[in-house]
Amino acid sequence: MDTSAASKPQYALSAGLGLNIEEIQARFGCSQDLVVKEMSFGSIDIALVYIEGLVDTYVLNQSIIAALLSDDKRSADAPSGNLLFFLKEDVLSVGDIGLLKEMDSLFDSVLSGDVVLLADGYAEALHIGAAGWEDRNVSEPTSQTVVRGPMEAFTENLRTNTALIRRKIKDPRLWLEGRQIGTVTKTNVAVMYMKQIAQESLVQEVFSRLDQIRIDSILESGYIEEFIQDKTLTPFPTVYNSERPDTIAAGLLEGKVAIVIDGTPFVLLVPALFVQFFQSAEDYYQRADVSTLLRMMRFMAFFITMLSPSLYIAVTTFHQEMLPTNLLINLAAQREGVPFPAFVEALLMEVTFEILREAGVRMPKTVGQAVSIVGTLVIGQSAVEAGIVSAVMVIIVAITAISSFVIPAAGMSISVRMIRFILMGLAASFGLIGILVGMLLLIIHLSCLRSFGVPYLSSLSPFHGRDQKDTLFRLPWPRMTTRPMSTAKENLWRQPRTSKPKPKT
Questions:
Q1: Which residues of the chain have pLDDT under 50?
Q2: Which pLDDT score, from 0 to 100, does residue 486 have?
Q3: Backbone φ, ψ for residue 241 (5° rounding)
């Protein structure tokens, strides 16, 4: 971190208009997008300073310049020695207006999209809220799509994102507190939580971790995520992120805390639990039985992705007696011309697919499908015909790859793909015993993880019977009367504690 930037003294504005303009132009290096518009208001010279492209031109022209040039306003008698107060209260019609006394505060306002008004003879200035740059419109989610549910996603604008959340939760208990992080970028960060639902200790812990961040730039939520996550060496994500406002709103109503970062469409949600990464927003819009079936399939896909290659290696290398005779003969016939052992064969195919997956993400959309077809069909078929790999290995890699896409959270999908290679090495070395030991170590590791003080495996370990209605399966909404005990301990009930009325016969 640049410590000099944090400890730099604040320089007060000068009473001379020309001196202030010279200092501003010198600090900006006479940048072409810096606009200094000089004019007069009555007998006093004033100047408007702003960055072209960061301000709303309509507000600038109609609410600021037009008001300053209005004959009625210019002929009005301004209080002696209090021109800035007169402009703020009686001339300008913009709501967000405040006083500035330091030069650094002036630069922060200008770079945030404000218009700064300087007046000759005054060692103060007015910052006028007129921010208005081009933003991406609210569109459909790209990484967390659903068949049924809201089709809106966050954008890169902080206020648009907080407004999308407030549209879901129309309650004054939804509090928002802001921070500026990054000594150079000064990125705006908003912390949102439900008062009287979120634990006060959790909220204070979030602010404590944010205030400890010392870096010059915050360009995406991933910066914040790595700083505030629990300091544990683990491949599993301990901070949840989403681009869906309904997912974040649901987390807030369960007592979690949302962190919205300006400049990114991904909002962070803490604490993050293991089962949360297998839950989709669509689970709560479908019927309970359909949602339960889909959630069970995701957990099954998790184990298929993690264990399929290692089980194939262990069985074909050490435990051939576990296979039926006909299947064993077929496998032996397929592998007769393969020059590599099962581990090298599986490793070769898995690495090849990971390369193809990454290439498909980075390639332009116009050629992405062609790369997928060539990679999966042509290369796979050619590899089998050339005797480099067996046909069964291609099938296992394909099942593993498809299963990894079933997991809704990309962070958890990447984690299980990393663990898969470790289990493959254990299977090649010790067979099924190595896989068993690896799984036991993995369970112990998950049991030791915490996310902002909450056990990562809640509510499986520690076990909360009341929370099982929305863990491995989901009960109908009339039965989901309480919030999760792991996050919402102050206001547990989400439905009135009354018995359901019986229908009249």
A1: 1-8, 499, 501, 505
A2: 81
A3: -130, 150
Q: Sign of the C-alpha dihedral, residues 223, 229, 234, 236?
A: negative
**Collapsed DSSP state (helix, strand, coil) of residue 257:** strand
Q: Which element (helix H / strand E) includes 48?
A: strand 44-51
Cis peptide before 245 (omega within 30 of 0): no
CA nearest to 109, candidates 60, 182, 166, 51: 51
460 half-sphere exposure, CB direction, 13 A CA radius: 12
CB 464 within 8 A of CB 454: no
pLDDT in tens, 231-249: 778 999 999 999 999 999 9
The rounded distance, in Å, linking the Cα atoms of 213 and 180 is 10
Scanning the structure block, which residue is given the tokens 């649901």? 250
Q: How far apart are CA 290 and CA 268, in angstroms?
A: 28
Tell me which DSSP letter residue 112 carries: T
Q: Are 1 and 214 in contact (CB under 8 A)?
A: yes
Query: Among all chains, which residue has been given the structure tokens 């703020």?
Result: 88
Give the C-alpha separation, 343 to 294, whole Å.
32
What 8-state DSSP symbol labels residue 208?
H
Q: How far apart are CA 307 and CA 353, in angstroms?
A: 16
CA distance 263 to 279: 26
Task: Report the Cα–Cα distance between both ends of the chain, in Å, rounded.
Answer: 73
pLDDT tens-place string over residues 496-505? 765 454 555 4
Please give the Cα distance from 317 to 391 (Å, whole number): 17
Q: Detail the DSSP E strand segments found in 120-186.
A: 125-128, 174-181
